[in-house]
Amino acid sequence: MPDDTLIHDPDGGLPRLIAIMARLRDPDTGCPWDIEQDFASIAPYTIEEAYEVADAIEQQNWQELRGELGDLLLQVVFHSQIAQDQGLFDVQDVANAISDKMVARHPHVFGTESRDKTAEQQTRDWEVVKAAERAAEAKTGTLDGVALGLPALLRAVKLQKRAARVGFDWPDSSHVLNKIREEVEELHEAATELTQDAVEEEFGDLLFVMANLARHMKVCPETALRRANAKFTRRFERIEALLAERGKRPVESDLAEMDTLWDQAKAEERQ
């Protein structure tokens, strides 16, 4: 029988979690589902957990955040155990790799460089260090290393930031706004004259420029859209509540009535 003392220790911390995952993946005594998983099958859960962390932060639900960070940490330990099972690396290697990276990228804290610099200067220095790291990995192209798996809006912003570093950028947001007007016109023409594939392409161009505007205005497009989603949800739920007071459901209403109630919900939020 394996020694489960650490696994059942409520104060076992990270070593306890690592031991639990090792047991779950044990080919003889582990969980069949956990044993069957690989990097690809777990990746969607990793992305989902990251979003749930962001959602807890958005709601300022700190108790929820503790649990969601635990779920995200589990994903790191899970991937690390899969890698260990395949003889690739283990969780200690993961911790050491990020520790080495953080020390190397903060010479003003862990080295001899002066800390007497602005956050903006530190950001520029950070980008210089990352560029050197990419060069060492033979990633010499300006856009090399921007992860394909990122949400599309975030990847658009990262691609544009990389291009801006080498001077491929509009000087200010007014030029971006002009480009947005141009893309809206092209989308309108595509919608009336071209194929659905062309409409999708023009719509993508518009979203890409909107991401560029977000970058120029120092707005995270993902955060902005999450907030817009939350606002829509909140106001539409208020419409449903107001309709319920009238003994109705949305399907029994019409656009004119719901639009009036939407305005009421907006007005209530401003009070």
TrEMBL record:
It catalyses: ATP + H2O = AMP + diphosphate + H(+). InterPro entries: MazG-like_dom, NTP-PPase_MazG-like_C, NTP-PPase_MazG-like_N, NTP_PyrPHydrolase_MazG. It is an enzyme of class 3 (hydrolase). Pfam families: MazG. Signal peptide: none annotated. Coiled coil: none annotated. Keywords: Hydrolase. Its EC number is 3.6.1.8. One of its GO terms (molecular function) is ATP diphosphatase activity. The keyword Zinc does not apply. GO terms for biological process: dATP catabolic process; dGTP catabolic process; dTTP catabolic process; dUTP catabolic process; response to stress; TTP catabolic process; UTP catabolic process. The keyword Hydrolase applies. It comes from the Bacteria. Residues 37-110, 176-235 form the NTP pyrophosphohydrolase MazG-like domain. Belongs to the nucleoside triphosphate pyrophosphohydrolase family. This is Nucleoside triphosphate pyrophosphohydrolase. It comes from Roseovarius mucosus. The lineage of its organism: Bacteria, Pseudomonadati, Pseudomonadota, Alphaproteobacteria, Rhodobacterales.
